[in-house]
Amino acid sequence: MNNLPPESITEKLLQAKRVLLLTHLRPDGDALGSTFGMRAFLRSQGVAAEVLIPCAIPRRYSRMCRDFAVSLSRRELDDFDLVLALDCANEARLGCGEFTPAELREKNFICIDHHRGNSLAAGESWIMPEAASTCQMVMQLISSMELPLVPESATFLLTGMMTDTGCFCFSNTSGESLRAAALTVDAGADIEKIANDIFFSKPLTQLKFEAELIETQLRTVCNGQVAYACVTDELLEKYDFDLREDEGLIDILRGLEGVVIAMLVHHRPDGWRISLRSKDSRFPVVDIARDFGGGGHTMAAGCTIDVPEFAEVERLLLPRFEKLLAGE
After folding, report:
1. Is 2-199 a domain of CATH 3.30.465.10?
2. Model-level pTM greater than 0.85?
3. Residues 97-129: pLDDT tens digits?
4. What's the per-residue H, E or C state across 113-170?
5. Under CATH, which number does the domain 204-325 receive?
6. Among candidates 286, 296, 269, which has minimal Cα distance to 324?
7. What is the β-pairing status of strands 124-127 and 2-3?
8. Where are the domains of the chain?
9. DSSP conformation class of 199
């Protein structure tokens, strides 16, 4: 993998005739913000750009993210002279439809990402783990070109910055991320639309789902420093809750007074999906996730554990939390 300087990516993007934009499966705000934000920018510069997302996107983003491809034929792929993956750290999560990463590497394949330990192995990459979001990186890239940023692109990029920093409340917020956000606002980002569409438009059924999750599934250990909950199939069925909408759900647990580490668990065909969060930089959770084959960020990580019962998940992870909090 060749870690490109941003200037090299700038040149390649503006020289391309047609660019295909990809991101990770189960896309979140940063994934969607960076891909659609880049698409809007490239189109404003006369570069033909399309987004491929071969999966459903969360309802909260569906009002903003429109007119994208859900599949491509081999012939259609061949029409693109550059493929750009954004916010995707590995092959397993890459939303490339029926194509393999190896096939994409036969083309001009570039990756822009802020995940530490990126293993996507694109032909060329720009990886910046210190960035709070991939949207921040895209904003820095556009800013370095000294080219105008259209309001549509600015709105998408600010969306990703806000979701990945918890509206600039998480510890990954830096002066650089705030300056990048300010540039999007100056360019006409519609912060009111972001707030209403993403943060203040929750269906009543979801509120009821969240209330019952806390009422029936919340557990605390380590003197209240660890809070966790298991999202059961019965609860999902009762409220017809789509797990694609679980972004932000773990923050309810993290928001409890006295909690340092939060864990949200739900069962999938390949095992138990574990989401981990920490709100104290002295107690990073990413190493725990990596030990079970996962990864992520220092304070926000995840993994999948293939064991029969949830009790086994508790047996494996709760002692790890105890040791982490004890400084072991």
Report:
1. no
2. yes
3. 888 888 888 889 999 999 988 889 898 899 999
4. ECCCCCCCCCCEEEECCCCCCHHHHHHHHHHHHCCCCCHHHHHHHHHHHHHHCCCCCC
5. 3.10.310.30
6. 286
7. parallel
8. 2-199, 204-325
9. I
